[in-house]
Amino acid sequence: MTAAASARQILLRLHEIMASRLHAQGKLDSVADIIGESLHSEVCSIYLLREGMLELFATRGLNKGAVHITRMAVGEGLTGTIAANVETLNLAEAKAHPDFKYRPETGEEKFHSFAGVPIVYRERAVGVLCVQHVEPRRYEEVEIEALQTTAMVLSELIANAGLIDEHDAAALGEGQIGMKTVSGLALVKGLAMGHAVYHQPRVTIDQVMAEDIEAERQRVYQAFDRMRGQIEQMASQAEFGVGGEHEEVLETYKMFAYDEGWSRRINEAIDSGLTAEAAIERVQQRTRMRMREIDDPLLADRMHDLEDLSNRLLRIVSGQLGTAATQGLRRDTILIARNLGPAELLEYDRRKLKGVILEEGSLTAHVVIVARAMGVPVLGRANGLRSLVCEGDEILLDADKGLATLRPTADIAGTFARRFARSRERQAAYAELRDVEPFTRCGTRIQVMMNAGLRDDMSALPLTGADGVGLFRTEFQFLVSATLPQRERQTRLYRDVLDAAGDKPVIFRTVDIGGDKAVPYLRSETSVHDENPAMGWRALRLALERGGLLKVQARALLEASAGRTLNVMFPMISEPWEFDAARAVFDDQLELLKRRKRQLPDAIRYGAMLEVPALAEMLDLLLPKIRFLSIGTNDLTQFLYAADRANPKLAERYDWLSHPILRFLRRIVQTTTGHDVDLGICGEMGGRRLDALALLGIGFRRLSITPAAVGPIKELVRRVDLKEVTAVMNDWLADPACDLRASLRAWADERGIETD
Ligand code: PEP
Ligand code: MG
């Protein structure tokens, strides 16, 4: 008899039992008999979770007197281990296993071999099905599979019979793996508490046994077709807008989607009498089991891909489509995903989405740029996360420290909640500074502006009381669109932003795409495959050569600013002629609008970003042409130190508070003094209190920072005496041996200025 045929025999018999009028206990007893007989095992036992303990519910071969008497804690003995780890055990000699525990009331001493599988309901083990044999032998694969299939049927049976206590199942989740800490890379700092929600919810299988095998087969065929179509489409849309999958992953997806072995195994499972859903899950269980046995990280990665694909197939076949965003978040959520696209993140309700944990992700990933703008903490590179966390688990996300605590104990959760409350209190205190103008102690008004990039970000302007938007990253609209945004859409966005800003100024930066901020519709042209994309064909370099792009944006900005002041600056200028060339594009568009007798902006103020060190040597030529100069320290410092800002290995290596950077910046302050040019900083550096203190000390009077930092920086400004901090900074910068960060921190501490 083939494996499928024997599995089918078992399923047919189970089917009869399920359809019979027996009560639940009778059905469990019969199942134990059938499995014991079919696998020629002296013993077959079914343990179910009741009040937090695994209770022997049915047995063939053990002392019947032990039924409803023998109880094991989750994690105790072999049965408890299977439930705790949600994994299968197959042992020739049970006693040799370190977790073996002898229960005298069962009379099991004469049995040597043991195999057990978890009975899983909604990802949690709610029971265990096991067989024992006098002869010491490992069970064969087909036998283990028969057990697993039976466990699926049992899960349906006990769910229908109301034998699953939801509370027990949830509690087991905690007992199952207990508290766990996962570390990763802090992509967007911050604290958050909430419950795990999978971006792509796992599918629940309601029916395990097929009514009509042929119909199930057709359903799987169609699902495969659809899945292959989706993958082809993803590949054609490249890495963007569909989940941020990398090309490499797509390649693997393709390989598996067309893998005959996979579809054949699913078909065989259907032959044995399972529904399409149950067959896909069965095959996946088997793969998972194999994966556990092979300790190869490369293979494990590929298996994750297969797991993803298998879930996709399940979603298609079961019609349980859509992401957690489409289903709507019900409570405070920490979103779990392998990776996400920026557009996908934007679909979530910002009030409920408290944090994101990704297995992949990098600092410059689009989704991270968007999350930062949304103020949602993100932990990335959390390896193996999805095998550790279940839907609904409580999570404490500490993206400041790059950690997430899953299923925290009450103590840990309490400590975290207190820390979180303190940080929120601080935020609330900062919010009270909303209407307070940031004057230093010595009476100088400092401009504290905010950075933005999405329409939604503008709501932070009245909330923080920032002096305006010092950097509006127009490329965000390009990054979150699947196609190049048309001029009308750009105009609408810029107009909305200006409307939201009211009297406050907004400085629009023309697109900074290309390099690592690749967009699919310019993909073939951009330098995403450059060895050094940050130094590649990006920002103004690209915009000047793709004149159409800048022309459209210029026109959109000019039209949106009709009757108002337009502030516009160009990114990544390396030489003054680049500014001239960009300005010429605007002049041309202005002429065109004049000819067409359209309403023009009342005033246009042009500015430049200083991000490329070379430009610092040419400021005498540039300054007469511009009204403002904004230093992008994110890019500037990576070029000064020749240290890729996206490389996590270098993230902590060079300090912004170091002599080369601060001396360089101070020289720019000195060079611009006496010119009618507003000078400011718009990199992340300005949003950190200690760094901002140093910037004030070397002469900066305007900072544009992430909205969450506006309150803290305003508060800092009010504590500073500029003369004092300037004096110490000058002294320290003259002394190359001085540890600037440590000295400034000690100095601030002495004055009661908090610098965290
Ligand atoms: C910078 O480089 O400092 C900057 C503000 O621009 P971005 O971070 O968008 O490159
Ligand atoms: Mg930059």
Q: What do these coordinates show?
A:
The chain folds into four domains: 3-177, Beta-Lactamase, CATH 3.30.450.40; 180-201 and 324-422, Glucose Oxidase, domain 1 (3-Layer(bba) Sandwich), CATH 3.50.30; 213-318, PtsI, HPr-binding domain (Enzyme I, Chain A, domain 2); 438-750, TIM Barrel, CATH 3.20.20. It is 46% helix and 16% strand. The longest helix is centred in the first third of the chain and has 24 residues, at 213-236. Strand 11 (353-358), helix 13 and strand 12 (378-380) form a beta-alpha-beta unit. Helix 4 (141-160) packs across helix 9, helix 7 packs across helix 10 and helix 19 packs across helix 20 (547-560). It has an eight-stranded mixed sheet with strand order 7-14-13-9-10-11-12-8. By secondary structure, the chain is an alpha/beta fold. It contains 29 helices and 22 strands. The model is unreliable at 171-176 and 238-245 (pLDDT under 50). The termini are far apart.
The small-molecule ligands in this entry are: phosphoenolpyruvate, magnesium ion
Any low-confidence stretches, pLDDT <50, length ≥5? 171-176, 238-245
The coarse silhouette is elongated
Write out the CATH superfamily name of the largest domain.
Answer: Phosphoenolpyruvate-binding domains
Count of spatially separate domains: 4
The structure class reads alpha/beta
In short, what is this structure?
By secondary structure, the chain is of the alpha/beta class.
Question: Notable features of this structure?
Answer:
single chain, alpha/beta, Glucose Oxidase, domain 1, Enzyme I, Chain A, domain 2, 4 domains, eight-stranded mixed sheet, eight-stranded parallel sheet, 29 helices, 46% helix, binds magnesium ion
